[in-house]
């Protein structure tokens, strides 16, 4: 039995993500939780002829508990998206409370599950989840993931538009966090190798860092990336299932994680990034979640400067998330 729960399943990301998870034949039960419309989304998806049984839950009648109980994997796209002119950090006031309450449910009803956090600001919401799990003494750093897959998907797409390479084949490590200057693409490590001019690198870097803004602007008040994010979330969830259910070795995905998940390499990386407790980088997945956090490797002077700029902002976002208390959260 492989139960996957989606929290925020009726939203712009939640619905297409749930559709893609319903198409994943490794999933046998798909539990959809939201404060609105989840039974309808579940009824609709339930007609698709793939193995997963789909159930929908609202907060009434212990819906969160029922959605979470026995979940192997939980994906969280619950929360409000940006409008033009907002930063991801502007979402903290509302989303911090939502994520904290969902994390409390996870601590109580599914403390052994793998948790993928999509809700923004990811740089802060991941520390919120970790602090809640720590408070309940159920924290396992190898199982908590901030979803940054969309950054590498964008890096593959945008760099291929310049180079003409096949976007399906191109991989660019993107490190740091998930907001503007904290998104640090390492174009010098692009695979297959590719050389770009200084100007191309600067333009590409900026586009990858602010790719989210392109969508927010184009949607003109109707939200942020949903379809590309659903694909990114489904890809990451599929990789976690491949590694933890099917036991496939050597899968590498990027994610924003707690560096203590990999004692040796994590400690090394922590000292290389100014003592940050959380950082996004390529992760090798294993049967128990995070198997190995990859090294940063050789980077150019330009990339070192980007990293130096990212570190102070990341530090503030991490502290803000870790300090979240009942009083600084707003509810619907
Ligand atoms: N990590 C990433 O790369 C990305 C993250 N995001 C973030 O994902 C989040 C969701 O975005 P959208 O789906 O576009 O928003 P949306 O507003 O379309 O959907 C959010 C859903 O969350 C639900 N919700 C609100 N409070 C809830 C609660 N307490 N429990 C359960 N569900 C709750 C809402 O009812 C709604 O259905 C935003 O915070 C957005 O910034 C968006 C794109 C990329
Ligand atoms: O830009 C946003 O607010 C949503 C997001 O995180 C992204 O698209 O990368």
Automatic annotation (TrEMBL):
UniProt: substrate binding residues: 82, 88, 120, 154
Keywords tagged on the record: NAD, Oxidoreductase, Tricarboxylic acid cycle
GO-annotated molecular function: L-malate dehydrogenase (NAD+) activity
Cellular component GO terms held in the UniProt record: cytosol
Reactions this protein catalyses: (S)-malate + NAD(+) = oxaloacetate + NADH + H(+)
Listed EC numbers: 1.1.1.37
Domain Lactate/malate dehydrogenase C-terminal: 148-323
Ranges where the Lactate/malate dehydrogenase N-terminal domain occurs: 2-146
Binding, NAD(+): 8-14, 34, 95, 118-120, 229
InterPro entries noted in UniProt: L-lactate/malate_DH, Lactate/malate_DH_C, Lactate/malate_DH_N, Lactate_DH/Glyco_Ohase_4_C, Malate_DH_type1, NAD(P)-bd_dom_sf
Single Gene Ontology BP annotation: carboxylic acid metabolic process
Active-site residues from the entry: 178 (proton acceptor)
Pfam families in the cross-refs: Ldh_1_C (PF02866), Ldh_1_N (PF00056)
Subunit (UniProt): Homodimer.
PANTHER family named among the record's database cross-references: MALATE AND LACTATE DEHYDROGENASE, MALATE DEHYDROGENASE, MITOCHONDRIAL
Family from the record: Belongs to the LDH/MDH superfamily. MDH type 1 family.
Record-given protein name: malate dehydrogenase
Species of the source: Cetraspora pellucida
């Amino acid at each position: 039995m492989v139960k996957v729960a989606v929290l925020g399943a009726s939203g712009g990301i939640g619905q297409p993500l749930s559709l893609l998870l319903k198409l994943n034949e490794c999933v046998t039960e798909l539990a959809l939780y939201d404060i609105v419309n989840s039974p309808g989304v579940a009824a609709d998806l339930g007609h698709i002829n793939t193995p997963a049984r789909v159930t929908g839950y609202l907060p009434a009648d212990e819906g969160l508990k029922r959605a979470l109980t026995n979940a192997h994997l939980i994906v969280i796209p619950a929360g409000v998206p940006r409008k033009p002119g907002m930063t991801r950090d502007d979402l903290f006031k509302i989303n911090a409370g939502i994520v904290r309450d969902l994390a409390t449910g996870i601590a109580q009803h599914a403390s052994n599950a793998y948790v993928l956090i999509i809700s923004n600001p990811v740089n802060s919401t991941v520390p919120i989840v970790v602090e809640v799990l720590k408070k309940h003494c159920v924290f396992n750093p190898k199982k908590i993931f901030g979803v940054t897959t969309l950054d590498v998907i964008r890096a593959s797409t945008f760099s291929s538009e310049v180079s003409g390479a096949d976007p399906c084949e191109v991989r660019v490590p993107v490190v740091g966090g998930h907001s503007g200057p904290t998104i640090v693409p390492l174009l010098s490590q692009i695979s297959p190798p590719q050389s770009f001019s200084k100007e191309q690198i600067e333009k590409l870097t900026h586009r990858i860092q602010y790719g989210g803004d392109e969508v927010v602007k184009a949607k003109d008040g109707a939200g942020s990336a949903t379809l590309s994010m659903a694909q990114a979330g489904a890809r990451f969830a599929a990789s976690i299932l491949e590694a933890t259910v099917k036991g496939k070795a050597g899968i590498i995905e990027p994610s924003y994680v707690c560096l203590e998940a990999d004692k040796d390499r994590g400690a090394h990386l922590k000292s290389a990034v100014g003592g940050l407790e959380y950082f996004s980088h390529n992760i090798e997945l294993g049967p128990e979640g995070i198997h190995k956090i990859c090294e940063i490797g050789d980077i150019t002077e330009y990339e070192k400067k980007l990293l130096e700029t990212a570190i102070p902002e990341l530090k503030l976002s991490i502290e803000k998330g870790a300090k979240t208390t009942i009083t600084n959260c707003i509810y619907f």
